[in-house]
Amino acid sequence: MGWLADLYPWTRALHIVAVIAWMAGMLYLPRLFVYHAGAEPGSESSEMLKIMERRLLRAIINPAMIAVFLLGGVLLLTPGVADWSMGWLHLKLLLVLVMAGLHGMMSKWRKEFEADRNQRSAKFYRIVNEVPAVLIVAIVILAVVKPF
Predict the structure, then answer these.
(1) How far apart are CA 59 and CA 135, in angstroms?
(2) Residues 29/56, Cβ–Cβ less than 8 Å
(3) What gap in Å lies between CA 41 and CA 108, rounded to an integer?
(4) What are the extents of the domains in the chain?
(5) Which of 5, 12, 58, 81 has a CA positioned 20 to 30 A from the CA of residue 120?
(6) Which of 93, 88, 74 is nearest to 1 (CA)?
(7) Cα–Cα distances in Å, from 93 out to 12, 68, 75, 112, 143?
(8) What is the C-alpha to C-alpha distance for residues 89 and 86, in angstroms, rounded to an integer?
(9) Residues 5, 78: contact at Cβ < 8 Å?
(10) Are 42 and 116 spatial neighbours (Cβ–Cβ below 8 Å)?
């Protein structure tokens, strides 16, 4: 597994790029939901938002999340990178799983919009829009500061 150590800088760099892409989408998709919640079902704007949401999820958010998990897994397997005795690592991974769960919820909500079955308000999606930001702040602080 020494070759993993040799690839570490590239793996880490690509992991960071994937995280940025995933978070960009996770911050933008609920903003689209805010607009969509205010659009009349079947209207031109509603149909345009359906296309934007589907493309954002399928072309950016889903592939980026997959890359985050694959590259993160490689980082965890790289000798000397992960110290499993540190509590911050466990909490960070838990928060990443929470982010993935939110990703799944957003995918479900997108399908509800697609079928014109959204039951949530724009205010709900404004609040949801803050959750990925809070999670990423906590995740980055844990990964960089390693407080415990």
Answers:
(1) 22
(2) yes
(3) 17
(4) 2-145
(5) 58
(6) 74
(7) 16, 12, 12, 29, 10
(8) 6
(9) yes
(10) yes
CB atoms under 10 Å from CB of 100, counted, come to 14
Phi, then psi, of 146 in degrees rounded to 5: 50, 65
Residue among 84, 89, 102 at smallest CA distance from 139: 89
Q: Is the pLDDT of residue 108 over 90?
A: yes
Terminal-to-terminal C-alpha distance of the chain: 27
pLDDT in tens, 58-94: 999 999 999 999 999 999 999 999 999 999 999 999 9
10 Å CB burial of residue 57 (0-12, 13-18, 19+) is buried
CB 82 within 8 A of CB 141: no
Q: Which tokens hold the place of 54?
A: 């589907």
pLDDT at 1 over 80: no
Which residue carries 């838990």 as its tokens?
94
Residue 50 has pLDDT above 80, yes or no: yes
